[in-house]
Amino acid sequence: VNDWEKSFWILLLPGFLGLSAHNNLGPEHEKHLHQHVKSEHNSHPGWVPRDMRHFGGPDSYGYVFIDSNEPDGPQFNYINFDGETITNMGDDDYRGPFQLPFDFTFYGETYSQVYINSNGFISFGTGNTQYNNSTIPDQGVPNNIIAFFWDDLNPASGGIIEYGQVENSWVCSFVNVREFGGSGTISAQVILTEDSEILFQYLDFNNGIDINGETIG
Fold it and tell me: Which residues span the membrane (predicted)?
């Protein structure tokens, strides 16, 4: 595992929604987004460059992102906790709704429950099994999602998904969850706070997982 794979993490906050993507190797290591088709008929082989600026926004709701390299950016502090473990999560599957320990405001709507999707995102209002990630915003489904590593993952072939309250936050962790059709794994977590802040943290990318094809945001 190289330094890039071990040190990429992300944050999001409301009114001041922050997206932190820390990269020890510097901004010259540009990332990319692409559509991943789960079949032998892959009609989306192209790549779309992703801007690796350290901060940006706001959007129409006042959300911005900020990188950990910025002076006011988030600090990496991965949370190890004994949460509830989701068992028998299948490929392209979801579980929920799960009760949040507080009301959470997201783009002007307040939610008390959340769904966990096997493909690296959580959602409000309804669950979703979409594996074919796209750029966001997107008028198509799924909507009302928080994507910390939206890609075609398959926890049925390995890994643990756990969730629960940690102090004034709700945490969902993917631990060594496998990508579909490969041996690569990701360990990452999304954190919701009672102040309606969002934090993404990335502990490990292992066994050659493709980190160039995910949607984050």
Answer: none
